[in-house]
Amino acid sequence: MSGKNYFSTSIGKKLIVGGTGLFLIAFLVVHCYVNAMMFWNDGGKHFTEAAAFMGGNVAVRIMEIGLFVGLFAHIAQGLMLWSQNNKRRGTRYAVQAGNQTSRWYSRSMGLLGTLILMFLILHLYHFWAPNRYGQAFDAGWREEDLYDKMLAVFSKAWVVVIYVLGCVSLAWHLMHGFFSAFQTFGLASNKYKGIIRSIGVAFSIIVPLIFAAMPVYLFMIGTGTQH
Hints:
3 helical TM bundles of succinate and fumarate reductases
């Protein structure tokens, strides 16, 4: 079987989803670290320095291209795999076993992934696209403008709510995806299964919580400065 045909099989799709999933987990750690700089409450100084380093580092910018390729490969293959599995389940069972055989979020990875994609598009529209445009075409652009942009975006309560809901979807998606990614590559052996599952649960709670706390925090700062 050729490599092209192999990656079109169910096992091949799982390898793509698992591999890109591990890459995206690593990205989430870095992105979460940069976002956490916001909580220094220093007018965005630490955050701006971290954002300037990420935006001006050639290696990071090259990795950014790989990130987008990995992200869309993860989404495309994940949705195809989810659709494929749903068709098989639909013809196999007359009665749904529900949580007796699997958690609801493991059966809803496609739905959760779609919600995260919608949230991601909004996030890119708000921050990544204007920031990269400013760096490339606006001679007067300063990294400090990104912090001001975030304050402006998160001054609207409905935007904050959407971001928080997006982080909730991310948490449920990771609750299954973290362990599943390690399992795909045989890294979740019986000896380490409990440890990896526990780390996955902690990661699925802590990282999305930090992401969700940021827009809430900025909203509170923004409303506080208006009074």
